[in-house]
Amino acid sequence: MSAASGGKIVVGVDGSEPSKAALRWALRQAGLTGGWVSAVISWDAPPIYGWEAAPSRDDLNTNAAHILGEVIAEVADDQGGITIGREVANGHPAKALLSSAEDAELLVLGNRGRGGFSKALLGSVTAYITHHAACPVVVVRTAV
Fold it and tell me: What Gene3D superfamilies does UniProt report for this protein, alphabetically (predicted)?
């Protein structure tokens, strides 16, 4: 099934402005093609040694789901009729997105996420995915 006939469009969401722009783009594309959007957020437990107050896996999962819900509510508020699936994955974002996109027609990402190098043209996750995805990738760039 092609994106022109209702295919799955995976979009990476992390709460950053570029990920919001990517979700907006993916929703417009789904509206044009009759596709549906799978919004994916990923979290990975930080390596914390000897810290008694480490967040639980449930807390990390709940927080990620909350961020995803907030972004969808903000961005997709006016996108009536487009199906938006939600996926909260545990693991490195690049691997989670590639896994989710195995059956996708298109993978949409912001040019960079929440990483520390704010002047980078591409974030590390986006750069990795553009080289390893099995489907076409759209990178939505926002002003730095």
Answer: HUPs (3.40.50.620)
